[in-house]
């Protein structure tokens, strides 16, 4: 049963998760590889190597871990955090509709 370990165990520290481990095929893996390149976490290096050796590669992972990992929202938050130094100010325009012209 040692095979049934989540691919994202190190990323998410999800060892204690009680969710069932599911399997992901080559299509899923390709998506994970793409996201991993964005995260620059090195997962894609190992994965693409394994996928090269076995085009029908199947990996084990929590379903919730994959969906978090391959979520655009999650990626954006990750990018925002790592690009914190570069943009000086984000242009934020506040448009308030319910503006009061007179207090009384
Ligand atoms: Zn997991």
From TrEMBL:
Alphabetized UniProt keyword annotations: Metal-binding, Zinc, Zinc-finger
Superkingdom of the source species: Eukaryota
Compositional bias segments (type: Basic and acidic residues): 82-97
InterPro entries xrefs: Znf_C2H2_type
Stretches for region Disordered: 76-104
Residue ranges occupied by any C2H2-type domain in the UniProt entry: 59-87
Protein name: C2H2-type domain-containing protein
Organism: Porites lobata
């Amino acid at each position: 049963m040692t095979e049934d370990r989540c691919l994202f165990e190190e990323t998410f520290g999800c060892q204690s998760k009680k969710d069932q481990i599911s399997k992901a095929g080559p299509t899923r893996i390709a998506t994970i590889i793409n996201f991993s390149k964005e995260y620059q976490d090195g997962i894609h290096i190992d994965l693409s190597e394994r996928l090269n050796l076995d085009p029908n590669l199947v990996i084990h992972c929590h379903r919730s871990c994959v969906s978090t990992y391959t979520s655009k929202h999650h990626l954006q938050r990750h990018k925002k955090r790592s690009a914190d130094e570069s943009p000086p100010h984000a242009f934020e325009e506040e448009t308030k509709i319910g503006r009061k012209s007179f207090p009384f």
